[in-house]
Amino acid sequence: MIRIGLSGCGAVSARYYAPALAALAAAGEARLVAVFDPDVPAMQAMGDRLQGRRLCASYDELLAAGLDLVLVASPPRRHAEQTLAALAVGLAVHCEKPLAMSGDEAAAMMAAATAAGRPLTEGLVRRQFPSVRAIADLLRRQAIGDLISVDVFEGGPFDWPVSSQRYFSRAESGGGVLRDLGPHVFDLLIGWLGEPQLISAADDARGGVEANARVELGFGAARANVRLSRDWARPNRFVFNGSSGAIAWTPYETNRLELRLEGQSAALILEGAGEFQDAFTAQLRAAIVPSSGVGRGQAPGVEALRLIDLCYARRQQMAEPWIDGGRAA
To answer: What is the 3-state secondary structure (H, E, C) of 269-290?
Structure first.
């Protein structure tokens, strides 16, 4: 049975990793041995929930707790240093997204994993969705003809239960909505369509982190228009427009998508697909047993992080006419 140590007892651990760890323990595949978080009440709450787990006073103590794998779910600023420290003592690592604060930092982590001969995986849970794999298959078979464009909107009024204002600090999180949702969205687009060309990027940051971002990408002859938001309430959708039809998908739907052909629409319900939490458990299983992964498994999405870096490097100020009269790009 794989012995796991958890670093970080915040919202993602409480909501998703704790149930996933419990499911793997019930299946006899893995067990949580120890936890660490500098927020002692949060660590104690996790310890109470997953009884019998060792509560560690430091990350070094966690690494010395007789582990096989470290689950890094700490704030993004800590991901690289904690991952590198775990790899240096011979442990495998599963790191929550974003893997790192930059593409270069992620590449250094990958190089360290290769040098150590230990697995490094990233929490890109949507790769486990049957709906995501079905979209890949439909696009590969050109079920909607030649791809013309992709329209993406994801986000909404921010409601993630953060524990401090540090979540909105560029120094702590590496950015705003683009750094938060971009790893998922860009990783999916790259997995479906290949390497993109950045055409334009704009956001509304005015000295802080962005709440809204707009990115246009080129995938050969097709264009992808991506809008990410932390304050705009509208339906979350990925829409693929082809020469003879369209595919529409709502993020977080693991087993359903819509196919439009010859003016007719039909919902495709995929058999055998579980709920979102089942996908979270599956991604952790793919981390502890790499051969259990499907498609790209949980290999880190370094290309998505490099694309985010490029967006920030080439960013323009998003037009906000209620502030600047529409003078920005």
So the answer is: ECCCCCCHHHHHHHHHHHHHCH
